[in-house]
Design goal:
Length: 279
Amino acid sequence: MIDSYAVFGHPINHSKSPRIHRLFAEQTRQDLTYTAQDVPSKNFKTSADNFFSHGGNGLNCTVPLKELAWSYADHLSDRARLSKAVNTLARQPDGRILGDNTDGIGLVNDLTLNHAITLSNQRILILGAGGATRGILAPILAQQPSQIVIANRTRSKADTLATEFAQLGNLRSSDFANLAQMQFDLIINATSASLSNQLPPLPANLLSADACCYDLAYANEPTAFVRWGISQHARFSLDGLGMLVEQAAAAFKLWRGIQPATSPVIALLNSERHLPPSS
Ligand code: NDP
């Protein structure tokens, strides 16, 4: 039987994951199927049980299923345990289901390998304190930035994350209003504001000289945050398409034991949208 993989989410019809994984499979000459299934939260367990009991090898889980996937896994990678969210499930040879979170390493690889943006010794601002921030914090802290500030509209959520991850590095929480007078070398937008073409209320002069901006969200046009980064003269103002491809590559490696080349896939997906050269 051909090895089978899928992405579960709700909604799922615009997911680029099937295309990305099919491109990886073609490139690495792997015989597999990868489908997308619309799975609302209430059906997650039944659908996952059904997928794995019919021989499914691995699942990607996206909004709103990452916390449910975390509870579903029989055992967890260290980074998934810390993030309390799972985007990749893998059936092991003994039948147990491993849960991993490849979002953070996807972001770090896109920043450091694809754009040569250094994280060590940098002052980093993360906007948002939801599931995506949970997933990226440990891999970013492992790069030893000099400081991370987490700013969130609901301050208490930023406080919780700063406390939970405090042992891993120099971490502080804030609300948006208290960011005035601070400066950062990298600002990561991990809010979902861009999905509704909105921007968190950011003070002027937040960026140091040569600072970069990165929006985890991605679209066919520059997001509100990418446009803001360009207006603030960021060295790079990027969206999360590269992270999407890199997190998929890390999942593919976990499942297949082969690291696919990400650059041609990113280049192909980028060529199909219309972004100005500075973003
Ligand atoms: P969550 O729903 O868990 O969290 C949303 C966060 O955004 C919260 O902190 C929320 O603040 C904040 N927020 C929402 N709207 C606004 C607004 N108008 N102004 C300010 N803050 C706002 O979402 P996720 O963490 O799962 O996802 C965040 C983003 O990351 C999404 O755009 C998602 O698409 C993207 N993502 C991209 C990936 C990639 O591979 N490129 C992978 C994973 C995520 P509050 O707590 O106050 O409600």
